[in-house]
Automatic annotation (TrEMBL):
Membrane-spanning intervals of the chain: none
Keywords carried by this UniProt record: ATP-binding, Nucleotide-binding
Ranges of residues in domain ABC transporter: 6-250
NCBIfam families assigned to the protein according to its UniProt record, in alphabetical order: sufC
Lineage: Bacteria, Pseudomonadati, Pseudomonadota, Alphaproteobacteria, Hyphomicrobiales
Family: Belongs to the ABC transporter superfamily. Ycf16 family.
SMART domains listed in its UniProt record: AAA (SM00382)
UniProt superkingdom: Bacteria
Xref: Pfam families: ABC_tran
SUPFAM superfamilies per record: P-loop containing nucleoside triphosphate hydrolases
GO molecular function: ATP binding; ATP hydrolysis activity
Organism: Devosia enhydra
PANTHER family associated with the record: ABC TRANSPORTER I FAMILY MEMBER 6, CHLOROPLASTIC
Identification of the protein by name: Fe-S cluster assembly ATP-binding protein
InterPro entries noted in UniProt: AAA+_ATPase, ABC_transporter-like_ATP-bd, ABC_transporter-like_CS, FeS-cluster_ATPase_SufC, P-loop_NTPase
């Protein structure tokens, strides 16, 4: 039997004595795109932060396996080296660090973790040019400090560019559609879809069904009060859009 790319078993998480995740169980097979939908405060973004290794969150129970390895025992950089990538809802600005410098450092950090040598400058420039073309990223944007003065769409495109260059096993997209107009959404979605293959898995976290018109999931999960309460195919997202989350809150309580 093939090992799932991501397997979450009975995950309980709290912050400052308040329990946020209350027994999350989730399996994402390799090659599949799964979506998590839920209202504000349901815990879905907390799940992404815990996967990435953000501090302040205390795991009180459960396991998270990435390609068979328990990543809860790893530091954030070790999780990235193991193949996990988190695209943030609000990518941070890093004044003084050129975007190109950051991208090359990130690629070389992962290569070092795999026991590979540093990427040559010509190979790096070629990779950035090819990946950037698909995301409509021009060279002037890459000369600027990382995310400083970028529009919402530019920040998301820069983040998907990182994903395209790092080629992770498991991509977690936390409300990637936040702050995007329809043109930017189409460009970003095209970049994400270009990375879909038979091995790489993705977890897309969103409020709205509109993103799933562009990044069509294999499975949709409904998140409510810190756990997954229902799963189904892409039609479940349309049902949520039409009826809202109230009916699923009742499912959870039953």
């Amino acid at each position: 039997m093939t090992t799932p790319m991501l397997e979450i078993r009975n995950l309980h998480v709290r912050i400052e004595e308040r329990e946020i995740l209350k027994g999350v169980n989730l399996i994402v097979p390799r090659g599949e795109v799964h979506a998590i939908m839920g209202r504000n405060g349901s815990g879905k973004s907390t799940l992404s932060y815990v996967l990435a290794g953000k501090e302040d969150y205390e795991v009180t129970e459960g396991e998270v396996l990435l390609d068979g390895q328990n990543i809860l025992e790893m530091e954030a950089d070790e999780r990235a080296a193991a193949g996990l990538f988190l695209a943030f809802q609000y990518p941070i600005e890093i004044p003084g660090v050129a975007t190109m410098t950051f991208l090359k450092a990130a690629m070389n950090a992962q290569r070092k973790a795999r026991g590979e040598g540093e990427i040559s400058t010509p190979d790096f420039m070629r990779a950035v040019k090819e990946a950037g073309a698909a995301l409509r990223i021009d060279s002037d944007m890459l000369k600027r400090a990382l995310n400083v003065g970028f529009s919402g769409g530019e920040k998301k495109r820069a983040e998907v560019l990182q994903m395209a260059l790092l080629r992770p096993k498991m991509c977690v997209l936390d409300e990637t559609d936040s702050g995007l107009d329809i043109d930017a959404l189409q460009v970003v979605s095209h970049g994400v879809n270009a990375l879909r293959d038979g091995e790489r898995a993705m977890l897309v976290i969103t409020h709205y069904q509109r993103l799933l018109n562009h990044i069509v999931p294999d499975v949709v999960h409904v998140f409510s009060d810190g756990r997954i309460v229902e799963s189904g195919d892409k039609s479940l997202a349309l049902e949520l859009e039409a009826k809202g989350y109230a009916g699923f809150d009742e499912t959870k309580a039953a």
